[in-house]
Structures are given as structure tokens and as C-alpha cells.
Write a structure and sequence with these properties.
single chain; alpha+beta; 5-stranded mixed β-sheet; 3-stranded antiparallel β-sheet; 20 helices; 12% strand
């Protein structure tokens, strides 16, 4: 009879239980939040992955010493109901892991140090990325041509640069026959050139994949069992979420199918591809087969025998790596390439998509094979480069390889057909292809999050250009209806703004009448007119800046709410016209702060700066510092604020405590590494004083989406005043008053709930 531990290990959803290792073991065990967390499946052509008020937070099992919550996934249900995961036992196990109920087979709790230091990030570029909970994470850097993986809290060596650019999108579509390449720059400008050298042949790619697989196995073999188990847990947790994103594209029982393939001595010719039939595997079949076969081979010769425990851990690591790679699948119809007839490109089509009820383009040559090999070669080049860094762990190498395969798909094999700078083939298919591409982008975002690589923010319109992106994926591309609704709203907003500006006492009003007339000529049902609308916005903004000294802003209307209520008490504020809310929030904070007492009028607002659009957190802080108000905190990321506040707390109060002076010095070093200067520290100290009870009121500036995941964070800022109720109240209530320069009724219940919790 097999042991309990052996039986558990053979479960398709096995995730090894290990203890903490103070940052050496990557990943995290997910901590349950106030939101209900669900694992969902996306029904094929029914569930559209995109942002909406319907929020579903996926639970992730990511192992490490502390707790971490992975990103929120915003989804809208289009046609039919969302089918939730029915793996009851798996979900029960997830609950236990998330609440810290770890038990070894014998019943004894696995030791966990839940009081490890909070995470730190050692590069200024990461100041505004998501830091949630207490995940202990590291970051890619390149030092003298060698990639290195620096643990959280460790100082970045001089000369080391952020290596996440290796995962950036740089679109390059190769035409049939490999004769021509189309590239798209960051502005969406397309250029074409002849291809000098094509990608490796299948045979060459297979050899490189086999060599890389052997190298990864060798590195894994030199790791401790605990390190291997930690890596396996990370791969398993990400794989499980990948399966949830892929949904019905993977079919049923994907973990069991992978286990069956893993147990075979070697992976046969098409066995990897056929785990899920008639779908495009983003990690190419030939390369994946050779890589994982090599991971299963012994070194032979005079190599010392592998200890049984290590051999078992290596096997688990390989299985979960295979599961991750296989879960990166997409509908074939979403993976399109140029097709040629008579030397002319005349369409876009997947080479096998005609088998799925899409008519074949007869007599044409497809660029599928050429682009597919280019995608695989780029991913292999990255893996080979990462293998140069001796500190790069096996699971990180596998995650990076899969991520590069996914971004390669977005770059070369899934250009958004609705984009205005991409040739307009098969318009009726554009919306379906957009949905399928959004699924692939979500996979890339998930893996990028596990590697602490920047992810995109914001939104794109349905027809926005295809362009290079400084992130593994591009921002969410809205569907045509959403884009059209946004377009109509912008038309209405600009006409309303012109009406406010059209006052008898204002000069140069002729341009207002001209632009109003031009706007009325726009077709509100044709988003191709958006370029003209952008021009008109620019003209009105320029008029506004030229006549700033004459303009008197109206005040926002407010709804009656109690300051102690969930949505706080809104106070009348000067109204914004464009996207100048950052400077206005700084002004409003100075108005709210009794220690400053700034007059609330246009002259005071205009004196603070040029009213630039969409200014950053640092810009807002600089305005406050210039007015002697460094003590006013600026919160762009609520989770990051909590982490940094804790560092300041340790640095300021730990010297004479059992934690000791060493912890205080470490915290100081972490603050320096996170580019926290005196102005940053002053705002964090204000938050600490309030939290400790030293003060009962403070004023701050907060991004209205600071409580959300980085990919959902917007640019709107408001000023608020938080006040704790009188001593003796049980429990003490925190009232919130705020000034919002944006006209209209806006609900900030979730933001204020998160803010009160943090305080």
C-alpha cells in the first residue's frame, strides 16, 4: 500500500508543502482577501476577458515565506453564465493553504515564519508597480552582459540594469516565404524591409531545446530539495491559473493528461501537441518535446547518482513545467498570418483554421511556419541568455521561456486585426480575434506578475494602432461597442466644456465656435472620426492655456453623504476641464490642511504649475514640497504604501526594541534602495503617526484606483482628510472628507474601505 505522502504526490493537482526560507524560495501562498476569490473557466467564444464592474478575483497558490495576492482579473460575461471550477477538493486545499493550515501527512503543522520582513524592491523603476501583502520576490537585472536575479532587499550592483526589456513587445510580422518583414514602433508606425536571415530550422531548434533542457536539469539537480519543491509550487500555482484563463480551450482534465504524458519515459513526436487537439500551442511542439525529454534524462558517464529525494523533486518540477508550457494554448483562428497568392499578400489566416469551419484560402502560401519558428527561436535565445546567470533558478527559467513564447505570439502571430495600421482583412472576424488575443495577453500578464515584470495599464480603443510596448503585453483593447461609447462620451464632454468656456468676458471666442461647429460634423457612430476629435481637444486645450488668467472654474456639485459613510463626504471643489486632476488634487490637499490654509480660488490653483495632464505621483509630491507640505502623503498604490510605511516604522522605532538596531539599519537600506527620499519619508511618517494614534487627523492625496491591481490603475487623483473619532469609541471610526475636481457622481466605496483598513 502506498504511503499517504506518495498517494498525495500522484494527485494531478499535487503541490508540495514546504516551509519558509526567508526569500530564497520564490512565489507565495495566496492570502484570502475581503473579496470572494474564485477560479473560473472561460467558455469558448462566450466569456470575454476584459475589464468591467463585474470583478472576479482568482485565487492563486504561490509559495513563499509570506502572503501575496495576485492580480484581480476583470471580466464581463457576454452571453452565458460563468462556469466555476468544480474541483471541490482542490479548492478546499486552497482554502487551507491560504489560511496557513499546513499539515504534513503525519498531522504535525509545517513550521512557518509569518513575521518575515516585508518585501522590498531594489530599483526606482518599480516604485509604482504593485506590491501586495508580504511576498518575497526578486527582480531581473543585466550586469556586464549576464542576467542576474537579485533577491528582495539585496542592493543592486553598480552598473546593473533592468532586464525586463527582454520581454517587451516589438512586433515584427514576417510575410510568406520570409521575403519581407513588417515592424511597428512605439507610435504604431509601420515599416517594411527585406529579411536578411530567417529563423532556425526545426532541426536546429530541436537541438537547442534539448541542450537547454539538459542545462536546466543540471541546475535543478544542484538545488536543494526545498528549493525544488518551492519552484514546483510556483509552477503549479501559475499553471492552475493558466488553466483557468484558457478554460475550454484546454478541454477537461488537463493536469491528468499532463501527468500521463510526464510518466512516459519520452514524449513522442506529436504527443505534446495532442494533449489538446486543434489548438495552437504557444510553446512550440518540437521545442517543448525536446526540452522536457532532456529534463528527464540522466547525465550518464561518471556523473554521481541522483539521491532519491532529489530525483523525486526533479520529477515533480518537470511535470509542473510541462503543465505550464502545455497550458499556454489558444484558438487557432486567433493566430493569423499573412497569406500570399501570385507574390501578393491578400489575406490573413491560420494554416489549419479551415478545419474549424473557416473557409480555406485556396492556392495561397501561409507564413505560419516561418513565424512559428521565429517565435520559438526568440524564446530559446532568451532562455539561453538566462542560463548564463548562475543564480537563475530552474522554475524562473521555465517561466521566462514560456512568457517569451507568449509575447512572441502577440508580436508575430496574433496582430490585432482591428488595429487601424494593420491591413483590414476579414472584418467580420475582428471582434472574435480581439477576444482571443485578450486571453493570450492575460496569460502573459499572469506570468509577468510572477516574475515581477512590469505589466501594462490603461485601455486601447478597438481600432488603436498595433505598436511596440514596454511591457510583456499591451493594454486591454476595448471592443467596438465600448470604444464607440467612450467616443460618444468624449464628444459630449468637449461640447459641454466649450459651453462653459463660451462666456462674454472671455477673449478669442471665435475658435470656440469653430471647433463646436467641427464637432457637430463628426459622426458619433464612426470611431474612425476619433483622430479628428483628438485634434479638436488639442485646439480647445491650447485656447484654455492661452486664456488661463481669464477663466473662472465653476465648482463641482456634491451629493449628500455622511463623512463616516462608506462613500465619505464630498465637499465642493474647483472643477477640472481636461486631465489636470493631479495639480488640482495637490491644490485641494493644501486647502484641506489647516496647517497650510491655502485659499481655494483659481489664482492659487494656477500658481502651482502649468496644469499639465496626467501628472505622476512624484510630480504631485514635488508640488506639495514646493509649498512646504512634504508631510502630506501621496498614495498612488495602496499596497505599496503599506509596505513602505512598515519600513519607515521599523527604521524609526526598532532601535530600542527586541527587533534591534540591525532591523532598523536593514529597513533604512531598503528605503534607500526603493528611492525613498526625505519627502517620501515625511508622508509615510504622517501615515505612521496616524496609525499609531499620535495624531487623529491628516490630509492626503490618493489615486482613486490605488487599491486595484496595477493593470487596472488609472490616473485620477483626489484629496482627502481622514479623522479618527474621539477616544473611547468602540471601535474608533475613521471619517473621510474629500475634494474631487471631476464633475458627476462617483463612488469610491471600495477605495475608502481599503484606505480605512490600511489606517
Amino acid at each position: 500500500m502506498k504511503s499517504t505522502k506518495e498517494a498525495e504526490r500522484k494527485s494531478p493537482n499535487y503541490v508540495p508543502a514546504t516551509g519558509a526560507d526567508k526569500g530564497r524560495e520564490a512565489g507565495a501562498v495566496s492570502q484570502m482577501t475581503d473579496h470572494r476569490q474564485e477560479i473560473i473557466h472561460i467558455q469558448q467564444q462566450q466569456e470575454i476577458i476584459q475589464h468591467s464592474p463585474r470583478v472576479v478575483q482568482l485565487n492563486i497558490l504561490q509559495q513563499a515565506a509570506n502572503a501575496h495576492t495576485l492580480p484581480l482579473l476583470y471580466r464581463r460575461q457576454q452571453q452565458e453564465s460563468v462556469r466555476t471550477n468544480d474541483e471541490v477538493k482542490v479548492e478546499q486545499k486552497a482554502e487551507k493553504l491560504a489560511t496557513g493550515d499546513f499539515r504534513q501527512p503525519g498531522g504535525s503543522p509545517v513550521s512557518r515564519d509569518l513575521n518575515l520582513p516585508s518585501p522590498t524592491y531594489t530599483t526606482p523603476q518599480l516604485r509604482h508597480t504593485t506590491i501586495q501583502g508580504g511576498v518575497l520576490q526578486a527582480k531581473w537585472y543585466m550586469l556586464n552582459g549576464t542576467p542576474i536575479w537579485i533577491n528582495a532587499g539585496d542592493m543592486v550592483p553598480p552598473g546593473a540594469v533592468d532586464f525586463s526589456t527582454a520581454f517587451y513587445q516589438n512586433p515584427a510580422l514576417i510575410h510568406p516565404g520570409g521575403a519581407q518583414e513588417e515592424r511597428y514602433d512605439a507610435a504604431g508606425v509601420k515599416s517594411s524591409k527585406a529579411v536578411v536571415k530567417g529563423p532556425d530550422t526545426d532541426q536546429d531548434l530541436a537541438k537547442r531545446s534539448k541542450k537547454a533542457g539538459k542545462s536546466v536539469r543540471k541546475r535543478a539537480k544542484s538545488s536543494s530539495v526545498r528549493e525544488l519543491e518551492a519552484g514546483t509550487r510556483l509552477l503549479a500555482s501559475v499553471s492552475k491559473k493558466m488553466e483557468a484563463i484558457a478554460g475550454d480551450t484546454l478541454g477537461k482534465n488537463h493536469p491528468a493528461k499532463v501527468r500521463k504524458l510526464h510518466k512516459a519515459k519520452t514524449i513522442g513526436q506529436d504527443k505534446y501537441r495532442r494533449i489538446t487537439k486543434s489548438k495552437d500551442e504557444l510553446v512550440r511542439n518540437a521545442g517543448a518535446r525536446e526540452f522536457f525529454n532532456a529534463m528527464n534524462e540522466s547525465e550518464g558517464g561518471n556523473a554521481p547518482p541522483t539521491p532519491p529525494a532529489t530525483r523525486l523533486a526533479l520529477s515533480d518540477l518537470r511535470e509542473q513545467g510541462l503543465r505550464l508550457a502545455s497550458s499556454a494554448r489558444a484558438e487557432t483562428r486567433g493566430i493569423v498570418h499573412p497569406s500570399t497568392i501570385g507574390g501578393q499578400v491578400d489575406g490573413q489566416q491560420h494554416v489549419t483554421s479551415w478545419k474549424n469551419n473557416w473557409p480555406e484560402l485556396q492556392g495561397r502560401t501561409s507564413a505560419h511556419s516561418y513565424n512559428d519558428r521565429a517565435r520559438a527561436e526568440n524564446a530559446m535565445e532568451l532562455l539561453e541568455q538566462l542560463l548564463q546567470g548562475s543564480a537563475n533558478r530552474p522554475e524562473i527559467l521555465i517561466l521566462s521561456w514560456v512568457l517569451r513564447s507568449i509575447t512572441g505570439t502577440l508580436e508575430q502571430m496574433a496582430a490585432p486585426l482591428s488595429a487601424k495600421n494593420v491591413t483590414n482583412w476579414n472584418p467580420a472576424f475582428h471582434e472574435q480575434q480581439r477576444r482571443q488575443r485578450e486571453t493570450i495577453k492575460l496569460m502573459a500578464e499572469l506570468i509577468a506578475e510572477s516574475l515581477e515584470i512590469r505589466r501594462p495599464t490603461g485601455h486601447q480603443g478597438f481600432t488603436d494602432p498595433f505598436r511596440a510596448q514596454t511591457a510583456p503585453t499591451s493594454p486591454r483593447r476595448m471592443d467596438k461597442n465600448d470604444t464607440l461609447a467612450d467616443y460618444k462620451h468624449r464628444i459630449h464632454t468637449l461640447i459641454t466644456t466649450i459651453g462653459i468656456f463660451d462666456q462674454p468676458t472671455y477673449p478669442n471666442r471665435g475658435i470656440l465656435a469653430t471647433v463646436r461647429s467641427n464637432i457637430q460634423q463628426l459622426n458619433p457612430n464612426d470611431i474612425d472620426d476619433e483622430a479628428n476629435l483628438n485634434t479638436y481637444y488639442g485646439q480647445i486645450y491650447q485656447w484654455f492655456m492661452n486664456n488661463l488668467s481669464h477663466i473662472q472654474r465653476p465648482r463641482t456639485t456634491v451629493a449628500p453623504h455622511l463623512a463616516a459613510g462608506a462613500n465619505g463626504q464630498r465637499l465642493p471643489a474647483l472643477r477640472q476641464f481636461f486631465a489636470e486632476c493631479g495639480q488640482m488634487a495637490a491644490h485641494n490637499a493644501l486647502v484641506l490642511d489647516p496647517a497650510i490654509g491655502r485659499p481655494d480660488n483659481d489664482a492659487s490653483l494656477n500658481a502651482l504649475g502649468p496644469l499639465a495632464n496626467n501628472i505622476s505621483e512624484d510630480d504631485i509630491r514635488a508640488i506639495l514640497v514646493s509649498q512646504g507640505a512634504a508631510h502630506i502623503p501621496v498614495i498612488g498604490n495602496l499596497h505599496q504604501m503599506q509596505t513602505l510605511r512598515q519600513m519607515v516604522d521599523i527604521a524609526d522605532h526598532s532601535v530600542n526594541t527586541p527587533i534591534g538596531a540591525t532591523a532598523a539599519l536593514d529597513a533604512e537600506a531598503d528605503l534607500v534602495a526603493n528611492n525613498q527620499g526625505p519627502a517620501d519619508r515625511a508622508g509615510l511618517t504622517t501615515l505612521n503617526d496616524f496609525r499609531r494614534g499620535a495624531t487623529n487627523s491628516f490630509v492626503g492625496v490618493v489615486n482613486t484606483t490605488s487599491h486595484r491591481d496595477a493593470s487596472e490603475r488609472g490616473f485620477h487623483w483626489i484629496a482627502f482628510r481622514a479623522t479618527r473619532s474621539a477616544q473611547g469609541a468602540a471601535p474608533p471610526a475613521i471619517t473621510i472628507e474629500y475634494l474631487d475636481s471631476l464633475e458627476g457622481n462617483h463612488t469610491y466605496t471600495q477605495l475608502f474601505t481599503s484606505l480605512r483598513t490600511a489606517l
